[in-house]
Design goal:
Helix 2 runs antiparallel to helix 3. It is built from 3 helices and no strands. Helices cover about 75% and strands about 0% of the residues. By secondary structure, it is mainly alpha-helical.
Amino acid sequence: MDFLRKVWPTPFRIKEKNVVSFVIQLIIFVVVCAVVGWLIGLLAGIPIIGIIVPIVGAIIELYGLVGIILCILKFIGVVK
Protein backbone atom coordinates (compact mmCIF):
# COMPACT_ATOMS: atom_id res chain seq x y z
CA MET A 1 0.00 0.00 0.00
CA ASP A 2 2.90 2.36 0.66
CA PHE A 3 4.01 1.96 -2.96
CA LEU A 4 0.58 3.06 -4.18
CA ARG A 5 0.62 6.06 -1.85
CA LYS A 6 4.04 7.12 -3.16
CA VAL A 7 3.27 6.72 -6.86
CA TRP A 8 -0.38 7.91 -6.80
CA PRO A 9 -0.68 10.35 -3.89
CA THR A 10 -3.71 12.29 -5.14
CA PRO A 11 -6.37 9.53 -4.90
CA PHE A 12 -5.57 9.09 -1.22
CA ARG A 13 -6.59 12.72 -0.54
CA ILE A 14 -10.20 11.71 -1.13
CA LYS A 15 -12.28 11.30 1.98
CA GLU A 16 -14.58 8.30 1.94
CA LYS A 17 -18.11 9.19 0.75
CA ASN A 18 -17.12 12.84 0.12
CA VAL A 19 -18.43 13.67 -3.34
CA VAL A 20 -16.67 17.04 -3.66
CA SER A 21 -13.14 15.70 -3.13
CA PHE A 22 -13.94 12.74 -5.39
CA VAL A 23 -15.14 14.93 -8.27
CA ILE A 24 -12.16 17.30 -7.92
CA GLN A 25 -9.65 14.45 -8.16
CA LEU A 26 -11.50 12.91 -11.11
CA ILE A 27 -11.48 16.25 -12.93
CA ILE A 28 -7.74 16.58 -12.33
CA PHE A 29 -7.05 13.15 -13.83
CA VAL A 30 -9.37 13.69 -16.81
CA VAL A 31 -7.88 17.11 -17.60
CA VAL A 32 -4.32 15.79 -17.40
CA CYS A 33 -5.20 12.88 -19.70
CA ALA A 34 -6.92 15.23 -22.15
CA VAL A 35 -3.94 17.60 -22.26
CA VAL A 36 -1.52 14.72 -22.77
CA GLY A 37 -3.71 13.33 -25.55
CA TRP A 38 -3.79 16.73 -27.23
CA LEU A 39 0.01 17.02 -26.99
CA ILE A 40 0.44 13.54 -28.45
CA GLY A 41 -1.70 14.54 -31.41
CA LEU A 42 0.27 17.73 -31.83
CA LEU A 43 3.74 16.19 -31.58
CA ALA A 44 3.02 12.95 -33.46
CA GLY A 45 3.67 14.63 -36.79
CA ILE A 46 7.31 15.39 -36.00
CA PRO A 47 9.40 12.49 -37.39
CA ILE A 48 11.84 11.68 -34.58
CA ILE A 49 9.63 12.80 -31.71
CA GLY A 50 6.67 11.00 -33.29
CA ILE A 51 8.23 7.66 -32.35
CA ILE A 52 8.82 8.47 -28.69
CA VAL A 53 5.73 10.55 -27.87
CA PRO A 54 3.11 7.78 -28.25
CA ILE A 55 5.06 5.53 -25.88
CA VAL A 56 5.38 8.24 -23.23
CA GLY A 57 1.77 9.24 -23.79
CA ALA A 58 0.55 5.67 -23.32
CA ILE A 59 2.42 5.45 -20.01
CA ILE A 60 0.91 8.73 -18.82
CA GLU A 61 -2.57 7.66 -19.92
CA LEU A 62 -2.13 4.37 -18.04
CA TYR A 63 -1.06 6.34 -14.97
CA GLY A 64 -4.24 8.40 -15.27
CA LEU A 65 -6.42 5.33 -15.68
CA VAL A 66 -4.98 3.69 -12.57
CA GLY A 67 -5.41 6.98 -10.72
CA ILE A 68 -9.08 7.14 -11.67
CA ILE A 69 -9.59 3.54 -10.55
CA LEU A 70 -7.89 4.29 -7.22
CA CYS A 71 -10.11 7.37 -6.81
CA ILE A 72 -13.22 5.24 -7.24
CA LEU A 73 -11.94 2.56 -4.87
CA LYS A 74 -11.02 5.16 -2.24
CA PHE A 75 -14.42 6.85 -2.59
CA ILE A 76 -16.39 3.66 -2.00
CA GLY A 77 -14.08 2.63 0.86
CA VAL A 78 -12.30 -0.40 -0.60
CA VAL A 79 -8.84 1.19 -0.26
CA LYS A 80 -7.95 2.70 3.11
